[in-house]
Amino acid sequence: MTLLVSYMPESRIETDAEALLTEIVAVGRQANYLADNGNKRWLPNG
Question: For the chain, first and last CA: distance in Å?
Answer without folding.
Answer: 45
